[in-house]
């Protein structure tokens, strides 16, 4: 069962971010920096794999993350997401649940199978039932972000799993309100 954390933002409104306990038995993938003939896993700090099928949302999320100092590799297809992860070895994958090719659940599971704990997974979706959250946790997601959410909520959820490579002097603030999601 996910544990819900209420994060109070600077605007004063609470946002729900569900975090999941680490599954008790997880098969770890190759360790960071270890190379074998079949695979070489070296996680790139600050590199995020963004998987969102809505092109406008993907562009907005990518812009927000890049502005915060992250490097971003993105796709709108679940099948392509796993290929990009193998190619780029991200630190964090931010994955929508409903995707063409493979679902976000399948992508999350495939990343866990392939990389173990070397790639952390944040799932985002407009479907926020306890069944979706539980299944996301079972497939390997470490956190669940309910759509719609603000830029601040996205940054807070991402930074909880992958600290920003560039720390700004000022706290992250938005200059305008952007509603993300349906």
From TrEMBL:
GO biological process assignments: phosphorelay signal transduction system
Listed Gene3D superfamilies: 3.40.50.2300
Pfam families given in the database record: Response_reg
UniProt cross-references to PANTHER family, sorted A to Z: RESPONSE REGULATORY DOMAIN-CONTAINING PROTEIN, STRESS RESPONSE REGULATOR PROTEIN 1
Top-level division of the source organism's lineage: Bacteria
InterPro entries attached to this UniProt entry: Bact_response_regulator, CheY-like_superfamily, Sig_transdc_resp-reg_receiver
Annotated organism of origin: Gemmata obscuriglobus
Modification 4-aspartylphosphate, positions: 96
Protein name, UniProt field: Response regulator
Keywords: Phosphoprotein
Residue stretches making up the Response regulatory domain: 47-162
């Amino acid at each position: 069962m996910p544990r819900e954390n209420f994060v109070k933002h600077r605007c004063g409104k609470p946002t729900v971010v569900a975090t999941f306990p680490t599954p008790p038995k997880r098969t770890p993938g190759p360790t960071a920096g270890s190379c074998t003939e079949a695979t070489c896993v070296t996680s790139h700090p600050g590199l995020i794999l963004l998987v969102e099928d809505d092109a406008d949302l993907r562009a907005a999320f990518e812009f927000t993350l890049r502005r915060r100092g992250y490097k971003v590799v993105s796709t709108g297809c679940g099948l392509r997401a796993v290929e990009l992860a193998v190619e780029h070895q991200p630190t964090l994958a931010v994955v929508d649940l409903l995707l063409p090719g493979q679902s976000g659940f399948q992508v999350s599971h495939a990343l866990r199978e392939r990389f173990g704990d070397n790639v952390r997974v944040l799932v985002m979706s407009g479907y926020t039932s306890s069944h979706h959250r539980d299944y996301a946790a079972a497939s390997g997601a470490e956190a669940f972000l309910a759509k719609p959410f603000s830029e601040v909520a996205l940054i807070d959820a991402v930074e909880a799993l992958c600290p920003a490579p560039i720390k700004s002097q000022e706290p992250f603030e938005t200059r305008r309100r952007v509603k993300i999601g349906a």
